[in-house]
């Protein structure tokens, strides 16, 4: 590939966000073999200085990629629950690693390695003290594993690769309560995480939290040309997912966001909320020092819970407070009604 023909993420930024989708789509689809050549991205070279935020994504169609991001926002996998003779709750989960092409922006697909067919993977949920069994089957083309953050026996830590076609059951007691993450831990680690093998893992406290509208958000990135730099940044896997389809909440309703950062190739990511503040609980622990702020930063694997109420009706923008990340897809709206 010549230097003249290569499109960098800096080139994409020069066009602004709407033009970015058109330029990046046409480049990656036409030049990278793993991507579907039958899909065409629209070309829209509007100058960024002439754009307003409502025009950042020209298409309001709910594509398959958007539907995935929307589903992951409010869907929690509690597993199949039963009671053991000692009264303890047993939860069993079915997890399949599978290679799957994922739509990450309009007209742009990514050859992902997934848990259960989505990027990020499902949001597993349980209560502290539950006995958990994750029945893992590797239907992918490479060895994979599941490494859970939390406290558990080392033999359940997910360091051993599970070969294609093989199965393994991870079993441990859920602790401590809070927001955990999980991801593949097979080497090369950066590749397995970047390709999509990660997700959130919520362990609820035994004393339930205050009722709220609960939202799951995983910050991530995609490197399409394999140069070690991300070309798109998203929440829940799809660029600009909640720009044209804002997340609907009620005025003064308590909103709780389970936020994690699984972005590869960048040291930090961040979450910034316009026109409002939130309380941030690192690792989702009530006993951790909290912050009352409008911006938090997370390194890879870091996570926390954000709680907020919206005192006024209207659209509240949220995005990464790294301008490059925002302009390359990590941006959306929450609309209070």
From TrEMBL:
GO molecular function, one term: nitrite reductase (NO-forming) activity
InterPro entries, A to Z: Cu-oxidase-like_N, Cu-oxidase_C, Cu-oxidase_fam, Cupredoxin, NO2-reductase_Cu, TAT_signal
Enzyme Commission identifier(s): 1.7.2.1
Cofactor(s) essential for the protein: Cu(2+); Cu(+)
Annotated Plastocyanin-like domain residues: 101-206, 231-332
Keywords tagged on the record: Copper, Metal-binding, Oxidoreductase, Repeat
Enzyme class: oxidoreductase
Annotated Cu cation binding sites: 144, 149, 183-184, 192
Keyword Repeat in annotation: yes
Catalytic activity field: nitric oxide + Fe(III)-[cytochrome c] + H2O = Fe(II)-[cytochrome c] + nitrite + 2 H(+)
Subunit text: Homotrimer.
Family as reported in the entry's similarity comment: Belongs to the multicopper oxidase family.
Protein name (database record): Copper-containing nitrite reductase
The species this protein was found in: Rossellomorea aquimaris
Phylogenetic lineage: Bacteria, Bacillati, Bacillota, Bacilli, Bacillales
